[in-house]
Write a structure and sequence with these properties.
Helices cover about 80% and strands about 5% of the residues. By secondary structure, the protein is mainly alpha-helical. Helix 7 runs antiparallel to helix 8. Belongs to the ZIP transporter (TC 2.A.5) family. Pfam families: Zip (PF02535). One of its GO terms (molecular function) is zinc ion transmembrane transporter activity. InterPro entries: ZIP, Zn/Fe_permease_fun/pln.
């Protein structure tokens, strides 16, 4: 009973929408428009980088992908600082909440929860990366064991047929034993045999070194892919939690005057957030089914929030203490997650890379798009 009173109407603090602009029938129509518009915007935004990657438009060795990521990083950074942190601060410092309990006005909970979320994201980032690295190393070990098993079977087969024989050498001199496969037709001259062995050793050493360099390159690719997997999953968590909140806020509104500009702003908001998330998902190299599930989960969250808000609009008071506390805490957590992801995993990882330092043209392009994305997303705060 107490929980219902905390989240529903409150005699001391009612919904502050203007009664002159309150029209439930018009608001209901606008909510269906909002769900359709936001759904299309979300799918469009997240589909562009995913389809572009598959069709080769966003190639890893070109300039389009780093430029798109820089713009997306600016969008995410502005979303955390300008939108989420601002909404969290307003919710946790609302006059209705101050009259409910003075504790919320005596401590900066919005910044505190954002800090906790950033530190927790660091922990999740670290643990998740370690988990995927151990999992990848286990797969490589199994694959290596299978290859060794095949080689051993082939060797036994050749020995059984008398095609080759194995001669072991002692481990004196250079340290470590050696093993040579010697052909049965060993009737060539000593000079020719020595020359051939020397040539073969050179080729073996060259191939061994080349194999190591290729292994290091593959390890770098594996580590980069693991980082993108963790980044995309944590980033989606931060974006989705905020998307549900803004969907609920729109769904419980009964004011067409408030909803009309909000629908346009949220559609743009959803498009650019989807573009940023889609870029991270495309770099993670998920399977098509996994990438599709993540894209649908993002695109459907805000319309689902609008639908839930519409169903509970008659009994739900967004200015009740429970609603304000829930909104403030979730927005604070989302702000901390996205600020961390934008600064550490997107901006620092790309702008401090060797590739960025070696190309002045790419530096100018990415910095311009970074500020453009942050500025454009910040300007949406005038309406949403």
């Amino acid at each position: 009973m107490f929980l219902i009173e905390v989240f529903t109407t409150n005699s001391s603090c009612k919904i502050s929408e203007s009664e002159l602009c309150r029209d439930e029938s018009t608001a209901l129509i606008l909510k269906f428009v909002a769900m359709a518009s936001i759904l299309v915007a979300g799918f469009s935004g997240i589909a562009i980088p995913l389809l572009g990657k598959r069709r080769g438009v966003l190639r890893g060795d070109g300039e389009v992908l780093p430029a798109a990521k820089a713009f997306a990083a600016g969008v995410i950074l502005a979303t955390g600082f300008v939108h989420m942190l601002k909404d969290a601060w307003e919710a946790l410092n609302h006059s209705c909440l101050k009259s409910y309990s003075r504790v919320w006005s005596e401590f900066p909970f919005a910044g505190f929860f954002a800090m906790v979320a950033a530190l927790f994201t660091l922990l999740v980032d670290f643990v998740g990366t370690q988990y995927y690295e151990r999992k990848q190393r286990g797969g490589v070990a199994v694959e290596h064991g299978e290859v060794v098993g095949v080689v051993d079977e082939l060797e036994e087969e050749l020995l059984g047929e008398g095609i080759v024989e194995i001669k072991e050498e002692s481990s004196s001199g250079s340290g470590g034993g050696g093993m040579h496969i010697v052909g049965m037709h060993a009737h060539a001259s000593h000079h020719r045999h020595s020359h051939q062995n020397h040539h073969d050793d050179d080729e073996v050493q060259h191939g061994h070194g080349h194999g190591h360099s290729r292994s290091f390159g593959e390890n770098d690719d594996v580590e980069g892919s693991i980082r993108h997997v963790v980044v995309s999953q944590v980033l989606e968590l931060g974006i989705v939690s905020h998307s549900m909140i803004i969907g609920l806020s729109l769904g419980v509104s009964q004011s067409p005057c408030t909803m009309r500009p909000l629908i346009a702003a949220l559609s743009f908001h959803q498009f650019f957030e989807g573009f940023a998330l889609g870029g991270c998902i495309s770099e993670a190299k998920f399977k098509t089914s996994s990438a599709t599930i993540m894209a649908c989960f993002f695109a459907l969250t805000t319309p689902l929030g609008v639908a839930i808000g519409t169903l509970i609009a008659s009994n739900f008071n967004p200015y009740s203490p429970g609603a304000l506390i829930t909104e403030g805490i979730l927005d604070s957590f989302s702000a901390g997650i996205l600020v961390y992801m934008a600064l550490v995993d997107l901006i620092a990882a790309d702008f401090l890379s060797k590739r960025m330092r070696c190309s002045f043209r790419l530096q100018i392009l990415c910095f311009c798009l970074l500020f453009l994305g942050a500025g454009f997303m910040s300007s949406l705060a005038l309406w949403a």
